[in-house]
Amino acid sequence: MSGTTESGPPAITIYHNPRCSTSRKTLDRLRADGIEPTVVKYLEEGWTREQLVTLFADAGVTPAQAARKREALYQELHLAEASGEEILDAMVQHPVLVERPFVVTAKGARLARPIERVDEIL
C-alpha cells in the first residue's frame, strides 16, 4: 500500500478521521517528526474488501481486532457474534466501523492505538 518515493523518504499513508482525537494526534506527531504523509479520509473515500484484507494482514490484526466496538452500529449489526468475513462486509458498507488511525509505511502497517505503535514502522 505504501512504497518509496522517487525523490525522497519512504511514502507514508495515514487512514485518518479528522473528528477523532487519536487520529489528529497521530497526524500531528508524524508532522512534528518532519513527515508529511498522504492523508486518506476513509470515511469519505470508503474501503474495498481487498484494501482491508491487505491492511489488516500488514498490521497483524484481525477484522474483529480492527473493528470500532464503541460505534453504535457495531452493536446494532451484532458484530460481536459475527465472523471475520461478516465483519469485513460490514466495514466495506460502513467505513466508520474501522478503528482509526491506521498508518502504512514501507516497513508495514499499524493501528496507532496507542499512538506510539507508529514508532515500530517509522
TrEMBL record:
Top-level enzyme category: oxidoreductase
Keyword flag Ligase: no
InterPro entries: Arsenate_reductase (IPR006659), Arsenate_reductase-like (IPR006660), Thioredoxin-like_sf (IPR036249)
Pfam family, one: ArsC
Keywords (A to Z) from UniProt: Oxidoreductase
Protein family: Belongs to the ArsC family.
Protein name: arsenate reductase (glutathione/glutaredoxin)
Source organism of this protein record: Gordonia defluvii
Lineage: Bacteria, Bacillati, Actinomycetota, Actinomycetes, Mycobacteriales
